[in-house]
Amino acid sequence: MTDVIEQDSKLSQLAADLNHAxxxxxxxxxxxxxxxWRTAFEDVPRHLFAPxxxxxxxxxxxxxxxxxSAHREEWLRAVYHDEALLTIFDEREMATTSCSAPSVVATxxxxxxxxxxxxxxxxxxxxGWTAGLLSHRLGSEAVTSVDIxxxxxxxxxxxxxxxxxDPTLTVADGYLGFPARAPYDRIIATxxxxxxxxxxxxxxxPGGTILTDLRGDFAGNLARLTVNKDGSASGRFLPExxxxxxxxxxxxxxxxxxxLASRAVSAPGATRxxxxxxxxxxxxxxxxxxxxSMPGARAGRIRIKGGPMxxxxxxxxxxxxxxxxxKAGDAEREVAQGGDRRLWDELEAAYELWTRLxxxxxxxxxxxxxxxxxxxxxxxxxxxxxxxxx
Length: 390
Fold this sequence. Notes:
29% helix; 27% strand; five-stranded antiparallel β-sheet
């Protein structure tokens, strides 16, 4: 249906103008530097990959479709916002796929350091836009993209073929990589993970790199690792953030535990006063250290019908929980905790550690993966080390 834009001269010109303005914005903000990537953005326009989407809440949260002729211009203008567009939802009406924000896509491409002659594996085909940009620069033969959702793969192929782009698109579990076309010079993951899948290291040539968003419930950050000859990998976290949706995988799956969440807001537990409120986690640098310090912990806000809202920490493995009421103006508040793991105590300990270490940022941390799959994040110049998964 997006060919209707090309058939309407007014909309076609608007699309070109909007795409040009977007590219200028990305270049001015330092997100799009290489001329080859800029050309790819020019020749592989975003609107061809988002015929129907739901806007994020900050832009209204409504759905736009190119098939709706009465709102076609609104659809086109929304496509070129520097925002993620939600494209596929599951049976719970939770978004599972999006067309990533252009600034994030540009950041991933630039940070991947992919260049002519490189073979690239993209984990998470999604709408196909990133695979298209990669194919434009590197050539279709050099690009492999996998997604666990057959719909994503089929629709991406339909969008890429008219552009003369024909990367290898395959339905596969990205956690396992895609050994059939290995080795690769680059693996680029456009989904977040709690650890680096060990098999990825086996599929990258020595000297090649892995770029992925390592993330849990609290925070995360882009990390780039170089694979070594002995099958290990090492690298560091980058200044850039991506905030991708979690990788959908049969190998790495976190079950939702609504019973534990319900218990967290209603069960009696040990109570005390705390100086730390949930707003402290809005400080990204601290939230990153919390994610390292509290592996397996999950966080969320839950409102009791007709009652207050609580910020809850839970640990599915130990079935431990902690809650504090979300309210403004209190220097101190009451925290309740239950289970063997005292989660709020851990949060306070993480805050004290972060302060003692002079408030390190994600870029201060390094990451190593051993040939046997053990993974650790370290803070150089200290004796601090944390194990993955997050």
